[in-house]
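Minimal example, chain plus 2-(butylsulfanyl)adenosine.
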Amino acid sequence: MSGENTTDPLAGIDVGALTEEQAVAELERLAREIAEHDRDYHQLDAPTISDAEYDALRRRNRAIETRLPGLVRDDSPSRRIGAAPAQGFRKVRHAQPMLSLDNAFDDEEVAGFYGRIRRFLGLDGDAAVDVVAEPKIDGLSAALLYEDGELVRGATRGDGATGEDVTNNLCVTGDVPRRLSGRGIPKRLEVRGEVYMRREDFLALNRAQENAERQVFANPRNAAAGSLRQLDPAITETRPIRFFGYAWGEASDPIADTLWEARQRLEEWGFTLNEPARRCKVLEAALDHYRNLEEARATLPFDIDGVVYKVDRLDWQNRLGTVSRSPRWAVAHKFPAEKARTVLKSIGIQVGRTGMLTPVARLEPVTVGGVVVSNATLHNEDEIERKDVRPGDTVVVQRAGDVIPQIVTVVRERRPKGAKPFVFPDVCPECGSAAVREEDEVARRCTGGLICPAQAVERLRHFVGRNAFDIEGIGEKQILAFWGKGLVKEPADLFTLESRDGDGEIDPPLCDWEGWGETSVHNLFAAIDRRRDIGIERFLYALGIRHVGQATARLLSRRYETLDRFLEAMAEARDRDSEAYRGLVDVDGIGRKVAEVIVEFFAEPHNGRAIGDLRDRVRVRDAEPVESGSEIAGKTVVFTGTLETVTRAEAKARAEALGAKVSGSVGAKTDYVVAGPGAGSKLKKAQELDVTVLSEAEWFALIGAP
Ligand code: IVH
C-alpha cells in the first residue's frame, strides 16, 4: 500500500471546519486508508506508516464521527479492530471479542483515565483505584484455549471477532504450555497474551535469513508475526518466538478477585508473565513505574512500546466494561519515539505505483531502538524545504515504535560549509517525463503514466480491468509475467502479442509457458481481439489519468463525442487562455484542478506517442447518445444493500445512462435511495432525511427496466 493517499487535500482541514460533504469524503478516505494499513500490518506484517501516524488517522476518523454521528459508515474503522484474517488458516470465532487498548500519550491523559474510572464507578475524586502497571509488549496478541488443562486451540486476534487458527504453530512456541499444572485450573480457560521475539533472537534470525537470501524482517514484531503465521509449523518451530500471558477470555470458573492475583495464578499454571509489573495504589506510583521502564527500555531483552495500566479489581473491570473497541478499565501509556543522530548522505527519489515522487533520505546507518536504519522518508518537497534538510547535514532520526523512520530535525550547528539546498527534480527519474505538482497538492507526480516503468504494472492492470478494456484472462499475474519478460511495456504491446508470438519473437512461445497451453493462449488472443473495438468512454478511463474515473470519462466522452475531437481540444487547451481550455474547465463536474491534470497528461509527448501506437491497433467508437426524457434524468440516486437482479455496477451504469447522478452517500440532495437486503446506515439516514426509498423492483418500475 502506499501512503500516497495522505496527500488528499481534505486531510489538511480541521475536523470542525469540514463541510458535511467533505466529511463524507474524508470518512470514506479514512475508512479505506485505515483498512489498507490494517491489512498491511496484520496480514502482510509489513506496515508502511508509523504507529503514531496510524493513531492519528484513527483519531481523526473518531473526531469526525463524534461531530457528525449521522455519517458513521457501515464499514467505519471504529466498528472494526485490526484486519480480517488472512487466507490459508481456518477461521476461529472468539467467544469474547479480543479488544484493543486506548492510548494515553502523557501524564495528563493518564490522569484522565483515572478520572473517567472514578466517575463511571461513582467514586470520590480521591478514592483509591489500584492499578496493575505492566510493560506493553510490541508483539501480536494470541488466545490459547485449554480444556481440562490441555491446549486445544490457539488463535490470532485477526479482526477482534474472528482470528486464525494457529494451534499447530502455537504448540511449538516457547513459553506456551501444552499442559497446565497446579491447582484450581478452570475446566475451560482461554488465556490471552502476546507472542513476541527477543531482540537478540530477532537479530540472529535476520542474519540467518540474509545468509539464505530470504526475507529479512524490519523489527521483532514483524518477525514474530511472520513466524507465527507460517503455514508450515516446522518453519515456526525453527523461529525463536515466545509468549507472555497477561489476560484471559472465557473461563468456566472465576480465576481470582484481582488482576494481581490472577497473574500469580497464570504463573503457577505454567505461563511466563510480562515483567516487571507493579501493583500501584496511586497515580504517581503508576507514572513512576512508567518512567522506570522507559529508562530500562533499552536494556530489556524485548521491545516494549509503553506501559499498560489495568484496574486491579476484577469486579470493577466487569462493571467498567468496554467502549467501542477498548476496555474502559485499561489504557496504554505509550513511550515517545526513539531517536538517534546520523549524517544524511544524499536524497534519492522513489517513484510509486501511482507516479508519486517520494524523497528518501539515504543515511549513514545508525541504530535506533535496536534496529539499524539507513533510509528515512522525507515525505515530499515541502517537507524538505520546511525542515531545510540538505545532503551532508547531521539529522535526528526517529522510529515511532515502528518501521519507517523519520527525520525529526536538522542539527544546524553541524552543517558542513557549502551544503546546498536540495533541488527537487521536475522530471521523473524513472522515465524522464515531466513531474508536476497539482494545485493544493504536496506531491509531485510523474505525468508519463503510459510509459513510466515505475507505474507500468499498475497502469496495465488498470488498462485491462473490468471497467476499462475488460480483457478476460489477463489480470495482475499475467501482466507481471509479460512485464517481467519485457513483452508488454505499454498498452499497445498487448495488441501485438499474437503477431509477435506467431513470428517466433516470443521465445519460448506463450503456449509453452508454465500454466498456459494452447487453449488458454488461443482464448487470450481471442479476448484481446474482442477489445480491438472499444467505446471512447472506456478508452479514456483505461488510460488511467489521475482523477479521471468512470464518471469523468463519461463526462468527457459526452462532451467531445469523438476521440479526434477530444485530442484536438486537449492539444489546444495547452494554451490556458484558449477557448478549448475554458471549454474543458466548464464541463460540469470537471473544474480547473482536474482539467489541469488532463491537459498535462496529453501534453506529455511520451503519452501522445503511446496513445498513437494504441490507436493504430484499436478502433475507438464515438460516444453513444444519452437517453433523454427519463423520469430520473438529473436526479441523484444512492444504491445501498444487496441488489438481487443486477450488479451494482450495472445498476449504476443504467441510472447514469438515463442521466441520473449516482452518489455513494445520502445527503440533502439525494432524490432516491434504492435499498436492497442488508441496507444499513444509508437507509437509516434516508429515512431521517425523508428521502424517497425504493425497493429494487420499484426502482426498475420507475425507470422502465430491466
Ligand atoms: S491487555 C483488553 N496487556 O496491545 C485489552 N495488551 O494496543 C487486552 N499488548 O491487542 C490487551 N502488551 O496485543 C494488554 N500488557 C499488555 C499488552 C497488551 C501488549 C498488546 C495487545 C493488544 C494491543 C493493544
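The radius of gyration is 29 Å. The pocket of 2-(butylsulfanyl)adenosine is lined by residues 99-101, 134, 136-137, 141, 194, 246-247, 274, 308, 327, 330, 332 (CB under 6 Å).
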